[in-house]
Every structure is written in C-alpha cells, then in structure tokens.
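Continued from yesterday's entry.
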Amino acid sequence: MTPRPAPLKRALRAGALALVAWLAAPVARATPLDLSTPAGLDALAQWMSQYRNVSRARWVISAPSREQAEAKRNELVSRLSPHDLDLLPRVEIESSANGGVRAWLTPIVGANTGSPNCSWQVWVEDPAAPGPGDEPIMTPLAPNDRIPVGPAATFRVGHAGLVQSRLYAFGETRNGAVRDLAGAPDVNIPVTHDAEGETIVLATARQPSPFFESVKTALADSQGERRDLGERYDLRQKMLGGGRGIGANIQAIPQSMIATPVAAPSPSATKESLQTSLLEACVYQMTPRP
C-alpha cells in the first residue's frame, strides 16, 4: 500500500512553531523597485493599489538620505489615483547608503493594525512582489483580506488556538470546487491558477460542525486535491450569502465571527432554512494579480 503524504494537519496544530521554522527556511527572493525613473514610481503606485485590501502590508521607500526618500514619497502622490491617496500612511521612509532609491513590500508582524484577529495564521509568499532583495516576501493576512497573487505564489496556514478544538481548512474556487487543505501534501500550498481566484475558509469549533464534517467526508479520499462537490457544498453561498459578489460579502463579516450552517446540506436546503451557530471562522481571498 502506498503511504499517504503527511497531512498539513500537523503543521496546523504546530501553529506558531511551524511558522518560525518556515521563516528560517530558504525561500525565493524578490527584487526591489527602482524609483529613479517615473516607471518605477508608477509601478509602486500600482502595487499599492492592488494591495489596498491586505491589512498587514506596508511599503518602504529607501534612499541615500531621508530627505530624498521623503521627496520620492511626495512624488508618489501624483501617481496615485484619488481613490488610493488614503494609502500614503502605509509608506515608510528610510535612509540607506547602498542601493540608490528603491521601494519594496514589507510585512507588519506583531503590531496592532486594527484588523480582525484570528487563531489561524495565513502567510502568502509571492516571488513576483517587490522585496528588499535579501529577505523573502512573506505577507501575513488578516481575516477578510483580499490579496492579488502571481502564478508562482504559495501560502501556508497554521493554527494557534485550543488543540482540542475541531479544525476545518478549505479552499474553494468555483462554487462547490473545494479542496481540504488539511490533506494537502505540501506545507507550502501552491495558489490555484483558477481565473476566479481562491477563497480560503478556516474554522475552529468546540463541537463538530455537521456542515463542515460533511464537506470533509466528501473529500476524505482526495488527499488535498480539489473536487467539484456541487452547489450543495458551496462554501461561499452557505456561509456568506449570495447576490453581492464575494468581495462585498467578505467585507460584511463582523470580525472573525460568522454564522455557519450546523445541518448537513441537502439538495433543497437554503441558507435561510439551515440552523446556524456561531464559531470562529476566518475567510481570506487570493485573486490573480493583474
């Protein structure tokens, strides 16, 4: 009998320790943006706009002096659309004698950003994102975040809550096309190439949730591969409601607590007819980067 690959569940339960080990591992590098040309400033403005729904992402402008870095930040104002001017507080400046005038993405770790907290952790590595050149790009997500990613991006999930809780980790592309992340053979999970992106649903429950248990049962032999389970297992419709688009629904979730079905789905079930109970459920979305 061929042994099954080690499930991601071990990494989920390891929580913070697994994340520390991953941070120390060698991963792909990214290069900073060159701000010495107008094209570099335009590129920075585009990246900032695309990352506006990533709560724990900031940007660094580095120059030989703080005055030069501040001047570049002032130049950036004319490159941002009026809708994106509120992103300027996310730009930090620093002086560095090496490297010229550059910019890169930097994660915010451990600081209170005002975004919802969750006992789950999600980190995304995208080699296409601009980095300082000597550090990997690993961006932590907050619940309800929406991050655009390139085709080589991967993500990792961990859990730091109570070990005795029931853990549910799913990724969904099209309605009902679901994979059980706890069964994935890779610790660093490749982001889907689906044009619709992927919605990550991570839940923690003190008591088993019949709905989530039914999804796990339907995926029991999938070993982390995606299966088209049909609309009766549509996570986004059952959990978040329909009609306004996934982005609008994600933004409507109060903190990390949402109502989820406790009854197993049936062909005639609707969101309104299912009994609901509250549990910690954290939702993230990864979309293809333009």
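--- second protein ---
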Amino acid sequence: MMKDEKPPARARVPIWYKNSESLKSTVSDLRLKFEGRCRELGLSPFGLQSEIWADLIARAVHESNWQEGIELDEPRTREIVFEVFQLDAIQHTPAIDISAILGRQRRVINEMRRHARSVEEIATFNLACAHTCIKAIIEDVQYREIAHLQLGLEAVRDAMRKSLNQEGEDAEQKIKLEEIETLLTESEAKAYSIGYESTTKSDSGAEYLSKLRNIGLAGIKVLPVEYVHFLHSVSMMSVLHYSRVGRFRNKPVHVGREDVLFPPYKSVPALMDEFCKDLGRVIANSSTRDMISLAAKMSYRFVAIHPYSDGNGRVSRLIMNLVLGKAGYPPIYLKADNRGRHMYSMALRRANRGDLQGLQSLIAKSLISVYERVLGSLGRH
C-alpha cells in the first residue's frame, strides 16, 4: 500500500436489531431450500419436521427455562422432553379435552414428586407438555377456521339464492354461486386432511366439525381464551400455587422499571378477549401474511398485557411458536446464554418503545439456525 493510500473501507454490517427484513428474506430462501431438498429425497416437509420435533422442542424448552432462571442442564432437559413424547401426553383427537390432559399431567407430576424429582425437572416436564399442546391447538384451530368459513359462505350463498328467486336469473350471481360451492367443497377436503400425520380419524373430525357448526357463526371462536389458560396451566402446574394457575392476575404487577406500566388487573379479561380474537384472525390467515412479524407482535402484546401473576414469559414464547407453527414453521428457541439474554432484553426494551424489529430479528435468526441445521443433516448447507 502506498504511503498516501487510505485503507479500503470496511463494509458496514447492519445492526442485528435493525436487520429484520434481510433476515426474513434469508429465512424464506432457506425454507424453499428445505422444501426443495425434501422433494429431491421424496419426503414430506411436514413429516420430516415431525421427526425432529422432539429435538427442536428440547432446545426450545432448555433455552426458555434458562430465560426464567431454571438452570437444568441440556442433557437432562433432553431426557425429560423425550419422556414426554414417549408418554404421548396429548391424545390426537379433534376436540381438546382440557380436563383429561391436565388430569393426566397432574398424575405424572405426583409420581415425579414421589420419586423426589426436583422443581426444575417438573418445570421442564411442564414446558415440554405445553409444546406438545401447541400441535393439538393448531389442529383444533383448523377445524374452527373451517366451520367459521363454511357457515359464512353458506350464509352468503343462501342470501344470493333468495335474491335470484325473487329477481330472476343473473349470470354474474350464478358464477359467484358456483365459486362459493367450489370453496365449500375445498373446505370439506381440507377438513378431511387435518391430522393426517397423527392418529386423528376422519370420522371423528367430521363429527367435531358438525358440532362446531351447530354453535353457529356468531358463537364460534377461532381461538378461545380458555386455550391460553390451558397453556398457562400446563406450563405452570405445581410451579405456581394451584389458585394462580390458569387464572388471570387479581392484583397489580411491577418489574422494577419506570418505563414499563402493565394494565390494571381489572382490565385484563377484556384485553385478553380482544387479544384472543386478534390472535385467531392472525393464525386464520397464516398462509398469506408475514408470520415472523406477527409472531413478534402477538408475543410482545401478550407480555405487555402481562395477564398472569407469573409464567408470562413462558406463555409468550409458546404463543410465538403457535403462530409460527400454524404457518408451517418448525419450533424455534431464543438463546438464553449471556449474549442471548442481553439481545432478548434489548429487543423487549425496544418493543416497549414501539419498535418490534429486534424481536422479529431474533425469531428470524432462530429459524435460520434451525433450517441450516436441518439442511446440514440432509447434505445441503
């Protein structure tokens, strides 16, 4: 280099929490590569993800635990997660029997206590069970979506038929009626395919769909608030006192920071009713929207409401995976080492100021890591 020459300028690397769009683009590319590699091998992407589900959830549980100060080592966490999968804690039926699932979990926890298993091990067992519940909730939500869609289409169809009878033939309306009938037929086929990778039977699915339709268009909730209580109950059983599990807080909460103000506890039921309605809309349109951004938005919104006395962080990350899972993404995990905790804390602080790019970036970085690992195992990097 000549004396007067300046060293070449270094390319500026975007700060991670301002780089969400680029990271999301990388996720899209990797997802396409993964799906393409599955086609090359003659494999189902969904089936392949299911095969590595336990491994991904083991990582998600371990990192989520460490976010909450539950420092159970990774090998023991993995053992417990695989125990849960061997138990088949969630019976794959269209309707979620919350009482039966919680009853079975309670019996297992009592057995764990008799064998002097630690609080950390019980908390790990709970969170692993909660992750298996996500798949059951996604299946249930799919039936609810279809029932809601069918009832809405039928209402429009009946109104159009009535109009045709009163006003005579209308070519344009006839075409629209044919389109509605096509959509109804397609929805039936979609309902039949739900749970094809599990033990769900088509006849029980048809029966459940019929029960949902009998509720009526106004009565169907795509994601009932009881399902959020369910996730909290599964996550926190025997970790919190039973009187606080699956129940909204009944007093103010504080986190020791002046810039964070959680809503009054009396407003929580109404806020959560709104939240669940919006969450239902988000996952009902999961195929056409930016689900990484929406996963960040809904997860943070839940934390901002802070509906429970404890366990909000765990449930917020479950909601994150619920939104992503409905869109066909694998489970993710946010790193909880020193750097990971710092990044997560920074992302939440920025979210408090209305900037969700940090959370979006963390979700995208996790998905990139998952896809790269899976592609590497399939001989593609």
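The first helix runs from residue 20 to 41. Residues 196-202 have pLDDT under 50 and may be disordered. Will compare against the first tomorrow.
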